Amino acid sequence: MKSSVICFKISCLDLFIVALTDKRFTVVVTITIVLVSAICFFVLRLKGKSLSSHLWKGKKNDNARIEEFITKFGSLAPNRYFYGDIKKMTNKFKDKLGEGGYGSVYKGKLPDGRLVAVKILSEFKENGEEFMNEVASISRTSHVNIVTLLGFCFERSKRALVYEFMPNGSLDGFIYNKGPHDQSRQLEWKTLYNIALGIARGLEYLHQGCNTRILHFDIKPHNILLDENFCPKISDFGLSKLCERKESIIANTGTRGTAGYIAPEVFCRNFGGVSHKSDVYSYGMMLLEMIGGRKNIDIEGSQTSETYFPSWINNHLDQPMNFNLNEVIAEEEEEITKKLVTVSLWCTQTHPMDRPSITKVLEMLQGSLQSLVLPPQPT
Fold it and tell me: What's its membrane topology (predicted)?
């Protein structure tokens, strides 16, 4: 048996040696190697094409969604700009207006001379759903107290929103009593009242005036823009949610909003369901900041009641309502203050069912002070 194996090995070795000396066999081997190499090359190339096709398909899906959106809204859809257009209208991002977690805002000018604010988004979902959500939400609106979206850019990773320009910036620049160089930018009580009224009207439009109800989920001073006449306009719909008007409770949306303004039920469903009342809570917290000229949560407060501003107000309701003025206020101004305080305390009730709708809020703001009663103190 062993001798047979040895003989087989020798025969194979002899055959290999003969093959090397046989030119015809060498040609066959060479051709075989070339064919195998060619097959491997074409297989790899096909895989590369398949991957490229997959990537292009993903890009095409994004573009298809935008085209579908433009077709759906027709002439009502905002203009679509290329990134080169954005760079041109902002003069290569020369004049920066502000910055936030979403990105930066730059001042720009359209070819017709209109000034615009261009928001360049730095954070977004890969498939662009959150970005297109904002475009779709705000494109459904047309109201004096809702900022107008003039256009957008969706070019691969480059995404931008083009809004009408608001000369007085955002509300937060006025209610904390300091401007860019620490100068006072305090507003009169009548102006604050009109701003509060305008924001409530804008919210009522979102909740009741649109065919599809829009919940904003991020009402705060930073997202309220002011035009040259201090007319307020609600902006930044990145966290908004569209829902049917008949729906009273919204399905799980995940915690969304800004700390200090988020309704309790948004992050803990034990308090109740998420609904339009969640925006009412945020509105109430914003009203408190407008009244007090300070953040709702004051980390410098020496006591717990001073740290949480709604509690501080409840503890000082029996004192003159002079929160953010150093001088004695007129009777009319004090009446405005008391009305704003009462409405804000109703809006910030812990349980959604205890809060008024935004329509009721408007009635309270425009009614007489005598018709208002103070709500129970939140637990």
Answer: Single-pass type I membrane protein
Name the phi and psi angles at 65, rounded to 5: -65, -40
What is the distance between the alpha carbons of residues 194 and 81, in angstroms, rounded to a whole number?
35
Residue ranges, comma separated, of all CATH 3.30.200.20 domains in the chain are 75-164
C-alpha 157: how far from chain center: 17
Token pair for residue 119? 């928001």
Question: At the topology level of CATH, where does 172-371 sit?
Answer: Transferase(Phosphotransferase); domain 1 (1.10.510)
Residue 45: CB atoms within 10 A of its CB come to 10
Token pair of 212 as six digits: 């599809």
Give the number of other Cβ atoms within 10 Å of residue 103's Cβ.
17
| CATH class of the domain comprising 75-164 | alpha beta
* CB 200, CB 147: distance < 8 Å: no
Amino acid 167 reads P
Residue 284 has pLDDT above 70, yes or no: yes
More confidently predicted of 359 and 14: 359
Give how far the C-alpha of residue 287 lies from the chain's centroid of Cα atoms, to the nearest Å. Answer: 21
Q: Please indicate if the annotation marks 119 as binding a ligand.
A: yes
pLDDT confidence bin for 373, thresholds 50/70/90: very high
pTM for the whole thing? 0.76
* Token code pair at residue 180: 């860019």
CATH 1.10.510.10 domain range(s) in the chain: 172-371
Give the pairing of strands 115-121 and 103-109: antiparallel
Quote the CA–CA distance of 158 and 165 in Å, as a whole number: 21
Cα 159 to Cα 131: distance, rounded to the nearest angstrom = 8
Q: Is the pLDDT of residue 83 over 80?
A: yes
Of 121-130, 264-273, 281-290, highest mean pLDDT:
281-290
d(C-alpha 294, C-alpha 198), whole Å: 21
Q: Which helix (H) or strand (E) holds 91?
A: none
Work out whether strand 224-226 and strand 115-121 pair parallel, antiparallel, or are unpaired: unpaired
Instruction: Give catalytic residue positions.
Output: 218
Cβ-based neighbour number of residue 21 at 10 Å: 8
**b (16+ CB within 10 A) / e for 304-327:** eeeebbbebbbeeeeeebebbeee
User: Residue 366 corresponds to which tokens in the numbers above?
Assistant: 């425009």
